[in-house]
Amino acid sequence: MIRNAAPPVNRQIMKLNNSLNKIKQKTCKVLKKRHARGRVNGDIHAIRSGYLAQIEAKRKEIADLQDKLKRAERVAKESQILFDPVDKYRGKGLTEAVLDAVKSLIRIGTGETGGVSAGQVCDYLKGHGFACRSPNFTVSVYVTLQRLSAPLDGRLIVSSESGKKRYKPHDISEFK
Q1: pLDDT value of residue 176
Q2: Residue 150: left if φ>0, alpha if ψ -120 to 50, beta else—which one?
């Protein structure tokens, strides 16, 4: 149902744009009539300000609809996690699971801001059935991410945004 939410919002945006165009056309017609009658100077400011207020209200409505559309798309991407099997990582090693988790998180759009964090990878692994044998699972995942991004291995790229390390695969183009 979430995937079908975008077309109604797009239709509403198109209707609002059509309304804006009609308001502009109506303004031109009224101004031409009043100009022909010689009463433009007194009434033009009142008419113009009224239509500008309507246009501004429609623009705000369009911005609200675009914001709703972005939220719906974000929810749709995040809900993709629910479709992954719960026991996806049973019997897999930590390195293989961490690398796959980073790729999966990038693929569903969680890491759009330049990669995924170690905490996101931990949560994803725990939520998809990885058996945590270590009491310091987050540290184990962090060390694995560091090793995968080291020059000797190089399967991941590490970047640091405002003090937070983010990880992403070398060839991210295949995930978009």
Answers
A1: 47
A2: beta
3-state per-residue secondary structure call for the chain: CCHHHHHHHHHHHHHHHHHHHHHHHHHHHHHHHHHHHCCHHHHHHHHHHHHHHHHHHHHHHHHHHHHHHHHHHHHHHHHHHHHCCCCCCCCCCHHHHHHHHHHHHHHCCCCCCCCECHHHHHHHHHHCCCCCCCCCHHHHHHHHHHHHCCCCCCCEEEEEECCEEEEEECCHHHHC
Over residues 63-92, the mean pLDDT reads 77
CB 27 within 8 A of CB 47: yes
- Residue in the block written with tokens 């623009």: 59
Is residue 1 over pLDDT 50?
no
- The answer to whether the CB of 101 falls within 8 A of the CB of 121 is yes
Q: In terms of Cα–Cα distance, which of 148, 91, 93, 89 is closest to 118?
A: 148
Q: Does domain 84-175 have CATH number 1.10.1740.10?
A: no
Decide if pLDDT at 148 tops 50. yes
Cα 161 versus chain centre, distance: 18
